[in-house]
Amino acid sequence: MGQMLQNQIERLQRMSRLGRIGWWEADFSTQTYLCSDYICQLLGLTEDNRLSFAAFRQMIREDYRESIGSLFTDIANFNTEHELIFPIVVPHGTVWIKTHNEPDSEVSTWGKVTIFGTLQQVEAPSQSDMLFRNLFHHLPVGIEIYNDKNELVDVNQKDMEIFGVQRKEDFIGINLQENPNLTQELIQKILEEDEVNYRFKYSLDRAQGYYHLHKHGYIDLITKFKKIYDSQGRCTGFVMINIDNTEQGKIEEELINAKEKAENADRLKSLFLANMSHEIRTPLNAIVGFSNLLSETDNREERQLYQRIIEENNTQLLQLISDVLDLSKIESGTFIFNIQTFDPNILCQDIVRSLSMKVPTGVSLTFDRHLPECVLMSDRTRISQVITNFVNNAIKFTHAGHIRIGYDAIGETHLRFYVEDTGIGIPADKLCIIFDRFVKLNAFAPGTGLGLSICKSIIEQLGGTIGVDSKEGQGSCFWFILPIA
Question: How many domains does the chain fold into?
Answer without folding.
Answer: 4
